[in-house]
Amino acid sequence: MTPIRRCAVIGAGVIGGGWAARLVLNGLDVAVFDPHPDAERRVRIMLENATRIFSKVTLVPLPEPGVLRFAASLADAVRGADFVQESAPEREELKRALLAEIDAHVQSDALVCSSTSGLLPSRLQSDMRHPDRFLVGHPFNPVYLLPLVELCGGARTTPEAIARAQEFYKWIGMRPLVVRKENDGFIADRLLEALWREALWLVKEDFATVEEVDDAIRFGAGLRWAMFGTFLIYRLAGGEDGMRHFMAQFGPALKLPWTKLTDVPELTDDLIDKIASQSDQQVGGVGLRSWEIRRDEGLLAIMQALKTLDIGAGRVLGEYERSLYTRVHNRSTAGKPDPSQPLRLHEGVVRPDWVDYNNHMTESRYLQSFNDATDAVLHYIGVDEKYLAGGNSYYTVETHIMHRQQAVALQPFYVTTQVLAADDKRLHLFHRLYSARDNTVLATAEQMLLHVDTRAGRVRPAADEMAERVRALVAAQAALPRPDQAGRSVGRH
Ligand SMILES: NC(=O)c1ccc[n+]([C@@H]2O[C@H](COP(=O)([O-])OP(=O)(O)OC[C@H]3O[C@@H](n4cnc5c(N)ncnc54)[C@H](O)[C@@H]3O)[C@@H](O)[C@H]2O)c1
Fold this sequence. Notes:
- This protein is of the alpha/beta class.
- The chain has 16 helices and 14 strands.
- β4 (83-86), α4 and β5 form a beta-alpha-beta unit.
- α1 packs across α2 (39-57) and α12 (288-309) packs across α13 (312-334).
């Protein structure tokens, strides 16, 4: 199976635009087809929004963004694509026709997914010649930030297609959730729909305004859902006796007429007017863009907080970061660097939020960039996930940074690393951070690392093969002149 490099997005509204942004930001080339005359403008705004927030998602150097292209026809968009995501309006006959057309023009081993919120994949794939590679990949708005994507195959979808989609969506930082049995609404939308129906009744019958319904969610259950969902939270509500106690205690309430779930309020003009005008009042004249920015910043803050706890979406973010590091390191060593020269293994761009008020890169970002270079060197000598999982690592114990010139926002840079000395416990590095525009040195850093047993938290000699690789690297670089700045301390200027 060919790796996925080129993607097509068919239908580029809220969801298709979000997919285009997530894919481009993961370094993939994307061709978009949407007949709406305003589609390109809207997608470009969404990509701008997504780029701004994505640059804060992680400190790991992000891949070079892919190329976004707008195609004049569906056939042109999908030609040569390895992956197609259909995100057209939620109408079964339209989606069936589009999927048949995609199927007719895309290569036969391309993966084809639909963003449908609840249409059955067995029906959607019925006019396709290659229905085996089709499945639902149902995302959540904003697609470029939220990790969940529900995967649901139809009767003719192969398990291989589902496995391939799982792997791909994970690779772009998502959390695929495979739906065990095809059903209308899958999992998440059935739950959301239940809440939505109840919310409509509450407003229709004047028990609450739209804002009060939102408050009832965001100050209570909403906060805990992000961590544990519903079952685990209710288990905790059962105290020491857990789920059985919870069910015994609150089971009888299920028979009370608390909800109106089986009934749907009729969406009369009056009800629509009532909800729309209360909603206008709720947003208080603040525009859509501002709300989107607040939403994205809020989601990011929650995801990053959950990352420190290794919970839910935070765990997905942590895994994504580790896989991004591996990709960065694999890319930097792909060109087989010459070990007799300072190793050029890390490069990046000074992100706009890395600079202070005078447009100079903040000191801590120099340290971060040098540490990224150290990580790349460690990966180069063989400190990979397996080595780390074995309880081995190198820890930095000392750093001395010298600033020569200022790095400014959006400045491309690269770092080279010379290994000054090493033995089976120590690794002594010297980094130079260069401007990639004119190859001048912007800063240098000297670092000492010690090999540690991470479980015991103690220094321990590196494993034989590792020590051997380090010695070979020192020998290869032995002829390099020792940098003037090496061994300097603060104050000798
Ligand atoms: N909005 C959500 O929160 C959400 C969440 C998950 C999934 N979805 C699903 O994603 C899909 C798209 O929803 P949306 O909210 O982005 O809708 P949308 O109305 O914002 O976008 C649909 C886009 O499809 C385009 N389109 C119309 N006809 C087309 C055609 N023949 N070929 C290509 N493009 C065409 C439209 O111009 C529009 O830009 C639906 O299946 C929906 O159920 C929506």
